[in-house]
Amino acid sequence: MVSALTPARQDDIEEALKNVMDIEIGINVFDLGLIYGLAWDDDTDTLVIQMTLTSAGCPEQEVLTEQTEQALVGVVERHRINWVWMPPWTPDKITDDGRDMISALGLRL
């Protein structure tokens, strides 16, 4: 059974995921809008992350997987990334903080 995270646990996980950087754009995966969902699998006691990439051909999947594992050390014991492609990522998924970061870098999306 998959259940929602408590607000405190959700906040801790989101903060941890802000340490996972998209190296092409230089913005973290959370604020870039690559995290489509977080849930808890009660049967396996595992965090389930619904994550996408900016494009299906993006070469960063392995790097982001490794960074996610490192970022979640001490936050959760187990996690699983479900890579999703629908709906495809678009710039409208970027958070307001992410837009501020992009502007500070002088980029426009």
TrEMBL record:
Cited Gene3D superfamilies: Fe-S cluster assembly (FSCA)
Domain MIP18 family-like span(s) in chain numbering: 11-76
Protein name: Metal-sulfur cluster assembly factor
Organism superkingdom: Bacteria
Natural source organism: Cryobacterium levicorallinum
Database matches in Pfam families: FeS_assembly_P
